[in-house]
Design a protein that fits this description.
Strand order of the largest sheet of chain A: 1-3-2
Strand content of chain A: 5-15%
Number of strands of chain B: 11
Helix content of chain B: 25-40%
Largest sheet of chain A: 3 strands, mixed
Helix content of chain A: 25-40%
Strand content of chain B: 5-15%
Largest sheet of chain B: 6 strands, parallel
Distance between the termini of chain B: 66 Å
Order of helices and strands of chain B: HEHEEHHHEHEEHEHEHEEEHHHH
Oligomer: heterodimer
Chain lengths: 174, 389
Amino acid sequence: MSLPDAYQKHEPTGNPVPHELRFVDPRSEADFDPNRYPTADGTAAPASAPKDRNERITLEFCTVYYQLNRLYARLMETRSHAENPERSVKERAVMQEIENYLRSRDELEDSYAPYGVIAEAMTQEGFTVDIKFTFGNRDVASRRQTRFVSSSALLIFPKPPRSVSNGNKGTHAS
Amino acid sequence: MQAKSELNATFEMQKLMLLNNQSPGDIVMLTAAVRDLHRCCPNRFITDVRTTCMPLWENSPYLTPLEITDREVKIVDCRYPLFRESNHLPVHFLNGFIDDLNDKLGLEIKVTQFKGDIHLSNEEKTLPSLVQQLTGDDSPYWIIAAGGKFDITIKWWHFRRWQAIVDHFRDRIKFVQVGEAGHYHPPLKGVIDLRGKTTLRELIRLVYHAQGVLCPVTLLMHLAAAVETKPGAPRSRPCVVVAGGREAPHWASYPTHQFIHTVGALPCCAEGGCWKMRTVPLGDGDDRDGQKNLCVDVENGLPRCMDMITPESVIQRIDFFGFRRNCEIASRSCDDRSRWNGGQEAVDRHPEPGSGQKISPGIGISGKPEPGEIENCTTTLTKKENSYD
């Protein structure tokens, strides 16, 4: 039985979450194109060199999808030219680069899967415009199960004198 | 006179309020306990519940509204400590709450059915499936849950493995992915994505219409057994469970399910389920991150017991059901020959040529064999072995 390559090539690694970014933040590069940089959960990605683990993971996925966007734009641009041998060579080179980044993306997904991290790309016309993140260590409070609180109290009230209860206001009927 | 004694009996019935705040799968087990309480002790109790996932109790004939503040109401906090014995006693999860009620109420309730007690209203049964409502397509489907809650991550299997199964059955089985919003349910490709889009009642209705279920040990597994099947469908719903070694199979599995486990095959679950909670610490401050709750044998980011279960082995178990289904279709079709014009079901299965009715084969996306294929049952079985086409 043959299975898709994706399964065979990208088994999860189970490595612990690293404390360093796996990629160079492209926002520090001279040719950075902000239009190709996706948002994270609808907001701007965290600043460079974050200390928080989730922010680091967010940056890594943003970086990979940024590179994929950039390469996809280049691929589109290459394909806009008339077909010729030179175009084929360029196209092939770009596609190989895309393949490398797709592998990097898969490796990221695999290494963070045991920690409950999901990075879901939201695409528009082939470009990733936003990434929806789920983190295993976030929103803990909302996961806590409802706890039933059952309490009881014993309240003792002395019985009022019979005369009071009879409405005789202290006078005894003899 | 008789009416008076019945009235007296009613007054003598004990009012019980059963409490539980656990997960929906646990609540399904509690529904069975309430059913069996009434079956084994008829006319002795009036019961109501306060639990999480209250929609699971809708249409239950065993509940009567009670006030928790009523002094006549006995409040019972329901638990299942029996699970601690599950590695060395022949007990099922269904026994868990029942054993607890027997202890707390001095009863001798017995399990009366091998499933939870979930009821659908007639309206729910007559409504088209959620899938049909959304897509207009009423062909059969399987439900897949490719993740779970964050509290017990040791039950997770890797999403690429779930994906491999979906890919394998492409164009043969239509998969509908479900999962509660806020839990870990990575998106799969090539499925109808209903993650976070169903209420609990809608999920139950989805299961009612489902041909099969593929999941880890989770609510969906319990629903696959507890929710009745549609008229005309086999009485037991196919269900393949990727279970690993966390729970003893006799505790967690249902007799008609394919429960893939490794208990007995690894040192960490050599004598029963390990009952661990997490594969790796999530860092969410939960006690389950503690060393005693962590898997002791992680391989490829998965507990070894889950890593040992391959997509191929799961595919094979799904194929088992394909074989069963084909046998049932063949056998029923042979019976139909003697009553060819007698039942609408047979007519539906063998539409007249040119009637315009869609003929669809096998199981999965389809569910019915080609008319010509039922000429000879033996031939059909040989031809259709492990096939969905």
